[in-house]
Specification:
Number of helices: 17
Strand order of the largest sheet: 1-2-5-4-13
Strand content: 15-25%
Bound molecules: siroheme, iron/sulfur cluster
Oligomer: single chain
Distance between the termini: 47 Å
CATH architecture of the largest domain: 2-Layer Sandwich
CATH topology of the largest domain: Sulfite Reductase Hemoprotein, domain 1
């Protein structure tokens, strides 16, 4: 069957059957990639996700093509998993080349520190995978019912005696599926003589759904650690010393079509030492593998298992699988997220965080960020860390080269942090139209206008420079994490959005619905009463989300 609707199959049982019958995620992918057609079947669409690839269509062209009775404009999105978002300049240059030669000319930094390529043709998927492979990168398992890209606060790459950095890499390697299908199919490796045995924690049908892990800092929660299936925060235990408080059961997606779906913050489960983390995650995964809902993909995430069982019963389940009692978690009080922008000292060198609007690195008439980063990578060669705010931090720049970096950015029209408006500085948006098959409304493409509107509102009440978190998505799946933002603008219909307020800079509180079905043209007037009250009545330095929550305005 040719895939015309690129959404998930409504019934999991079909996806579950597909996984079981896929021969280690192989299915018919070889034949499908070899075929002349531009798209793939529904079955291959599902399997490709495990390989980090989404079959999509250009939705800007959908209506015209359908009216003309023509086939959809098939394109593919490929997501590269990058643990903790860390890349070398050499790797960045490979991504840059792929963007130019095989994709739509852009590199899309994601809210999980990964990279996406949009607009890839089917024939480009194998060359793309080979180029990545040569630079020790891959799209494999960046999507699908597996452990996704591990997110980590950028500063943990250098602080924390390297413990968390080692852990991020260990988690990424330990929880990669074992099947060699990706290398056979995309990279041109040998066909495996016999099907390999998958990890115990996956089994042949993998997980009920995706599973997300982040390592965050207590002092500043830039990764939204409570929005994860499993979050880790480095802490000091009074008797056991260094280790992690582990949180479980977070997730932000919701479905309008299913009322018993909801956003949820993760709860503290236990304290573990660094060398106990992998065993604990394995036990959590095994509980999720067996208890997660495999009949309804919309309600299949770990958060529903934890919510339905209750944390205490879930802890019992994990202990049983671990064969040991869990220690009580060390309490964590999360601090406001740092955006990691601007120049920062890093030992004898410097880091520079650069704002990337909606994570889209490309060249436009206004600014040529892609060219600028390419020139910096070639001439200076810093490390790069993608942040969970869709931005990039250039690391380990010798102080003597600071001026060179600034000159390259300025000649390419890339704004320094001081030139950014307060709303612009933190705003996030998901890709939505024209690539996302689930988008109900625009997001990334209208972000600049929405930022301008909300900044104008802040200016008009005298709150110009006060930090403010605005996050926007084209549907309630919540890919830019609006559910924990101070202001969340979430696509409801083609032309209207639900407006949430009251999340906070610490990511420790869910936003609440404020107004439904708001037109973007009315957004500033809809928010005006809250802004006026904030400007005149808030305590010194009180964040917008904290204020509207304290005053019961949300
Ligand atoms: Fe997401 C599905 C983009 C982070 C919740 N997400 C999608 C898909 C693949 C659409 C689809 O299924 O057809 C989007 C691709 C659109 C495109 O054209 O590129 C998409 N999600 C993104 C990215 C690129 C948004 C961004 O602006 O950066 C992020 C990629 C992350 C990565 O690198 O792995 C992204 N998605 C998130 C987050 C935030 C996070 O993880 O920190 C969430 C909310 C947290 C959570 O998972 O609860 C999120 N995405 C979803 C959901 C709802 C899942 C749920 O169980 O509730 C879907 C829908 C689904 O899985 O069926 C979804
Ligand atoms: Fe697509 Fe945005 Fe919805 Fe995510 S939140 S599924 S990117 S429209």
């Amino acid at each position: 069957m040719v895939n015309t609707a690129v959404e998930d199959a409504p019934l999991t049982s079909s996806v579950e059957a597909l996984k079981l019958a896929s021969d280690g995620l192989r299915g018919d992918l070889v034949a499908e990639l070899d075929a002349d057609s531009a798209g793939v079947t529904t079955e291959s669409h599902q399997l490709l996700k495990f390989h980090g690839i989404y079959s999509q269509d250009d939705r800007d062209q959908r209506r015209v093509l359908a009216a003309a009775g023509r086939e959809l404009a098939h394109i593919f999105m490929a997501r590269v998993a990058i643990p903790g978002g860390a890349l070398t300049s050499e790797q960045w240059l490979v991504l840059d080349r792929i963007a130019g030669e095989l994709a739509d000319g852009s590199i899309r930094l994601t809210t999980r520190q990964a990279v996406q390529f949009h607009g890839v043709a089917k024939q480009g998927l194998r060359p793309l995978a080979r180029s990545l492979h040569e630079a020790t990168m891959s799209t494999f398992a960046a999507c699908g019912d597996v452990v996704r890209n591990t997110v980590m606060c950028p500063t943990l790459w250098r602080d924390d005696a390297g413990d968390s950095a080692r852990l991020a890499r260990l988690i990424a390697s330990t929880f990669k599926p074992r099947t060699r299908a990706h290398w056979e199919i995309f990279v041109g490796g040998e066909l495996a003589a016999s099907a390999e045995v998958e990890h115990d924690f996956y089994g042949a049908s993998y997980l009920p759904r995706k599973f997300k892990i982040a390592i965050g800092r207590e002092s500043e929660n830039c990764v939204d650690v409570l929005a994860q299936d499993l979050g880790l925060v480095p802490v000091e235990h009074p008797e056991r010393g260094r280790g992690y408080t582990v949180f479980v059961g977070g997730g932000l997606g919701r479905s309008y079509a299913q009322e018993d779906t909801f956003a949820r913050l993760a709860e503290p489960l236990a304290f573990v030492t660094g060398d106990e983390v992998v065993a604990l995650i394995t036990a959590v995964l095994s509980a999720y593998r067996d208890l997660g809902d495999r009949t309804n993909r919309r309600r299949a995430r770990l958060k529903y298992v934890v919510a339905d069982l209750g944390l205490a019963a879930f802890r019992d389940e994990v202990e049983r699988r671990l064969g040991a009692r869990l220690r009580a978690p060390v309490p964590v009080a999360l601090g406001a997220a740092d955006d990691h922008l601007g120049w920062r000292e890093n030992g004898d060198t410097l880091d520079l965080g650069i704002r990337v609007g909606a994570g889209r690195v490309r060249d436009t008439d206004v600014s040529q960020l892609r060219s600028a980063l390419r020139e910096i990578a070639v001439t200076i060669g810093p490390g790069l860390i993608i942040t969970a705010q869709q931005d990039v931090v250039l690391t380990s720049i010798p102080p003597a080269q600071r001026d060179d970096v600034e000159r390259i950015l300025a000649t390419h029209g890339v704004l320094g942090v001081d030139a950014l408006g307060a709303v612009q500085r933190q705003a996030l948006a998901c890709p939505a139209l024209p690539t996302c098959g689930q988008a109900l409304a625009e997001s990334e493409r209208v972000l600049d206008g929405v930022v301008e509107r909300v900044q104008g509102l802040a200016d008009s009440v005298g709150a110009s420079r006060r930090p403010l978190q605005l996050r926007m998505t084209g549907c309630p799946n919540g890919c830019a994490r609006p559910a924990v933002a101070e202001i969340g603008v979430v696509g409801r219909t083609k032309t209207s959005y639900d407006v949430y307020v009251g999340g906070g800079p610490r990511g420790d509180r869910l936003a609440r619905i404020y107004r439904e079905k708001v037109k973007l043209d009315d957004l500033d007037e809809t928010l005006r009463p809250l802004f006026e009250a904030w400007a005149s009545e808030a305590d010194e330095g009180e964040a917008f989300g904290d204020f509207v929550t304290r005053r019961g305005l949300a």
